[in-house]
Design goal:
Length: about 170
C-alpha cells in the first residue's frame, strides 16, 4: 500500500520540478534577450530559424504563437538590425522566406556557451538509458505543448467568432 503514496509523492515532486525548470528557463531567456538587446519573441524567432535554416513568415508566426501582423513587425525589426534576411519565395511571390544571417549566429550563441558546457558535463554523468528516457520525456512534452498551443489558437478563433456573432457582425 505504501507504493501508491510514494509514487504519488514522486509524481508531485516531478511536476513541481518541471514547473520550476520552466520558470527558470523563462527567466534565463529574458536575461539573454535583454543582454542581446532583443525581446524574448525575437530570441524565439532567431532560435527557430537557427534550428530550421529558413522559414516563411507564417511558419514563424505559428512557432512563436504570434499574430502574422506581430511577426511582420518583428521580422522587419530583425532585418533592419541585420539578424535576418527576408526574400520573396520564387515559387510563390506572396510568401516571404526568412533566414538567420550566418555571420550573426556566433553572437547569438555566445551567451549560452557557459551554460551549455555545464549542461554537457551534467549529462555526461548519465547512463545512456537515462538520457534516452529524458529525450522521450522532452519529445512527449514538446507534443503536449504544441497541442495546447493549437488548442489556444483554435479557442481564440472560436471566441472571436462568437464575439462577432454576439455583436451582430457575423
Amino acid at each position: 500500500m505504501s507504493h501508491v503514496p510514494a509514487r504519488a509523492s514522486a509524481i508531485a515532486d516531478l511536476m513541481r520540478a518541471g514547473r520550476e525548470m520552466s520558470r527558470l528557463s523563462m527567466v534565463f531567456r529574458y536575461a539573454i534577450a535583454e543582454q542581446l538587446g532583443l525581446t524574448v519573441s525575437d530570441l524565439e524567432c532567431l532560435d527557430f530559424l537557427a534550428d530550421v535554416g529558413s522559414a516563411t513568415a507564417g511558419q514563424v508566426a505559428e512557432r512563436t504563437n504570434l499574430t502574422t501582423g506581430a511577426v511582420t513587425s518583428m521580422l522587419r525589426r530583425l532585418q533592419q538590425a541585420g539578424y535576418v534576411t527576408a526574400e520573396r519565395d520564387p515559387a510563390d511571390r506572396r510568401r516571404v522566406i526568412v533566414a538567420l544571417r550566418p555571420d550573426r549566429v556566433a553572437e547569438l550563441t555566445r551567451p549560452y556557451e557557459r551554460f551549455a558546457g555545464r549542461v554537457g558535463r551534467l549529462v555526461e554523468g548519465y547512463r545512456a538509458e537515462e538520457v534516452e528516457l529524458l529525450v522521450r520525456h522532452y519529445d512527449r512534452m514538446h507534443a503536449l505543448y504544441l497541442a495546447e498551443l493549437d488548442r489556444f489558437r483554435d479557442g481564440d478563433t472560436a471566441q472571436r467568432e462568437r464575439g462577432q456573432v454576439a455583436e451582430g457582425r457575423g
